[in-house]
Amino acid sequence: MKRIVILLLCLLAAGTFLFAGGAKEEAVKPTITMTVPWAGPELEQFLPVVRAFEEKENVKVKCLTYRGEDLSAVLPAQFEAGQSLGDIIFLWDWWVKKNDQHAVDLTDIWAPVKSAYIPSPAEAGGKVVALPYVMVAKPGFWYRSSFFEKNGLKAPANWDEFTSLLKKIGGISGIKNPIVTGNGVGWPISDVTEHFLITFGGAELQNKLIDKSVKWTDPQVRKIFENRIIPLLKEGAFSDPVEWTQAIELWWGGEYGLYFMGNWITGMVEDAGDLGVFTLPGAKAMVTGQDWAFIPKYSENIDLAKKLFAFMISKEGATIRAKQGGKLVARNDISSSLYPKADQAVAEAVSKMETTVLDLDDSIGGDWQRLFWDQLKLLWVSPDSLDDVLKKLQAGL
Domains of the chain (ranges plus CATH)? Predict the structure, then answer.
């Protein structure tokens, strides 16, 4: 009997020990879920900001990569059910404004930073519904400095020098086409097309195409395509569309000489110090844009999500992000010296422009954006379809 009692006491003691040990285990950290538009190197550049916040606040931040096209298709049904994929969601500002009834008012976290911010917030329904995070710029054609030096090439100062450069690159052994055409759902082709429209039509033309006061069948628009883009397509200056991340690898490997891409490319190559970039000669405006985010009112962690969002756009958070490169922070109180070398070059290119303009297809959005992408992909492989393409773009508005 005595042995049984001792055994029971030992078991009780062991249970007490296990219970006490369990109590000492680290408590489950609060978790914030964030949908982001980045993957791979782009996401890696953002994660130091996340890690700093996690350590500062003792929380867990989970990042899920989603394309805007996919989010815009699934969120309405989720919101209708009172649910959300994330506590913070990155998506186009125009979409959030259109669906402002589902967004939390962010005025309280915008007010402390607005004097230092370059872009304005997205407002609808009398509230701030989305905030810009990092900025992207689409400065022009990227090249490897080592490739230019090896082959005696230099950035062009006028259109004739540009076309001459393309011919020289095309004559280099191993080059398939002077320019590689990146393609995803269609946006890389739309970016280079907009660069031509802005260079030869000015910022005013871009803005009028966005507000639909100029038609796609307008002679000015057609002339830019006919005289600048179509001849290059027919001469083989551009490659056929290639998946855009694969295009980076092929271009970097020497199969192509130039690649039109946004400044995020600096974080997607082996050696950003070997990058050079030039705009089309004569360009006085450049597309810049922002990655926008909002907090859905169906989040179960609204206060914590606000805290994370406030850290991301603070000077502390922006300083961490600037050091990673790949994107430009949207604050004017961050020294350009914090950026890696290639990103400093982009900032300088932006500063030389008379103005910046909005991304055309992102601004119009909706079904027309997909039409724009599809028609440009068609044009790239069938240049003689120009008139049909322009008519369809106009009819689709």
Answer: 31-135+290-339 (3.40.190.10), 140-261+365-395 (3.40.190.10)
